[in-house]
Structures are given as C-alpha cells and as structure tokens.
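Continuing the batch. This is chain 6 of the set; chains 1 through 5 are on the previous pages. Same settings as before, nothing changed between runs. Recording input and output for traceability.
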Amino acid sequence: MEYIPRLAESSLRHHLSRGKSVLLLGPRQTGKTTLLDHLGFDISISFVLPSVRLRYEKDPSLLQGEIGAIAGKSKKNPLVVLDEVQKVPSIMDVVQDSIDKKMAQFILTGSSARKLKKNNALNLLPGRIVAMRLDPFLYRETHYDAVQKHILYGSLPGIFQVEKPEDKETDLKSYVETYLEEEIRAEAVVRRVGQFARFLEYAGLESGNIVSFRALSQELGISHTTISSYFEILEDCLIAERIDPITKSNTRKKLTKSSKYVLFDLGVRRLCANEGLQLTPERWGHLFEQYVGLELIRNARLTGQHKIKFWRDPDGPEVDWVIEKHHSYTPIEAKWTEAPNPGHTRHLQTFLKEYPEAKKGYVVCRTERPVQLASNIMAISWKNIGDLFS
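Output for chain 6:
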C-alpha cells in the first residue's frame, strides 16, 4: 500500500527537531508504525511479541545498554522507537533516566494509556515528552468522494485502502473480534466475557447519544458502576471519544450535564452494533452527525487549541456540536441533506442569541457549494470541515 502523508507528521518532525521525545498514542491500526517507518529511527523495539516483552520485563536496563552501544558510534543522540509501550510500564524508568542524561530521543507509541496511568508512568512524562495522538484518516488526508462509504466502513488506514467492500467487511470483523473483544478485554481484566460483549454491542448502537448509565444498566442487567467502568475502559483504550456538554447559561437552568460517547471509527462502530449496510434515512442522518463530530474532534486535536462540546436543553433546543476556543463558541448542526434551508438554522439561532460570544454558526451537510442561510449562519459541505480550524 502507498504511504499517505499524515497531517500529524509535520508536528512530529518539529518536536523531534527541537530535541523533544514524543508519546504517540492512537488506537491499533491507525498507522503509527507506517508513519514511523517513513520517518526513520536508530532502534525500534515492539512489545507486541510476548518474547520481547519478557526480555525487557526481566531486565529493563538492557535498553540503556543498547542505547549506549549505538550512541558511541554517532555524534547525535539515537532516535529510539518503543512500540506498544504500555505493555511494559516498567521501561518508563529507563526512558526517564535516558532522557534526563540526554542519551537518546524517544518515540513511544501506544494504543492505551490505561496501564501507564495505573502504574503512574505518565507522571514521569510532563516536561520531558510531548504527547500526540494519531487518529484514523481525516478527509483532508485522503479527499475521498463518498461520505457514505466512510460512514459504513470507517477510515482506519489498513481498511480504507482495501478496494473490495467484502474484504473491508472481513477486515472490520477481524478488528472487532481480535482487538476489541480480546485485547481490550484482557488489558482491562474483564472477567465476564458475555457481559462485556453485550456492552460493546450497545456501545455501538448508542454511539453519539447522551449516555444514561442507569438506563443501560436496566437494559443489560449490569450494574451502573460496571457500565461506567466499561466506558472508562473504552476511553482509556482510545476506542471511545467522550464529549462533554456546555453547562453554563444565564437563562437556562436545565442544560444537560451528562456526556455523550462516540466510538472512534464508524466502520468499527457498525460491526460492534451488528448493523448491516442497509440504513434508513433517519439512521444515515444520525451517523452523519457522528461523522461530523469525529472530523471536528480530530481537527481540533491537531490544532491543540480547540475543544469540541455539545449543547442541549431537555426542554427543546439542542446543537449537535460546538467548537470552543478561548471561551468563544462556534455552533454546528449536521444535516443529512443536499439542499440546506433556513429551517435548519432554528437551534443555531437560539444558541447564538444565548451566547453573544458566539458570532457565527454553521450547518454541515452535503451541499456542493456554501449557502448563506442567515446573516450569521452558513451551510458548508462536509468536505470543508477542516476550514473551520484555519
């Protein structure tokens, strides 16, 4: 498969050029290894293989000896890649010591921050390592034409570049079965297999909705505290994005305070939910809203200056997504339509009146060209979401 340049690459190169080490997190198969192969390195160690893990678990200082052997042959510090570093948290002591002694630069990759958090390894990183995230493909990286295919099959690099739909389906099924249901379950020490599998299906079905742990608890017959811990597992393993609501208002007292979760890839979501390929118009609309949300989240993450939230008053108005930057807001509605009209702006107008610091709103839809719907509201194509961050 050809290498498709990633938008994160320039930031990664920049941080390395100024002598920093990098923690590159991202779900499995988002292209971390491909990106690093493209960059080049002096030492690469993957902790995916049990035999490799065992060597360094027995003697973490082995890494420092290997770095010393390389460093003696070069005038510059070696660049060391440690893949799936969360599988050997004890190695972080060696990483810290090597950075402090200016022996090497590191790129640490991982598909979960869970074990690093649990062992306080992340506490070693502030000031020493720049944290970055690699997501599935953004539209700006691939310029695909059909948003429908993206909604059905997602944008994991290895699956995105597969041509035949039936092969994409096979690969997605394998991803869910071997990674989500086995690796995450093992990492989280989930003992009740059937219970977690049922939860995963509902997480797919409820993706994009405001989560009620108690309602899910009644539906699944699992305690609400267990449901909460399962969502935390998905978040720590980078499989679910948690989006928090805007809760402050001068006039509205009942704004929703519960978060909503979106699974990180729409193809993976569909397989988790056991959904087929034939969707109703209403379902297309709901999934398009999630697509827009994921594009917003990934673009915001690249800038490092924006947060994505939502706004909902249970008594009526709600806005799908809100870009927050320096306490200013840009409200966004997602509509599964090719012909936007002023009727689509009702909730945006309400939001703009409620928050004077919000100057413009957008309807993201399938229009071919921008359409002015009101003096302060524009309809734009899903292809132009990235322009909202420029």
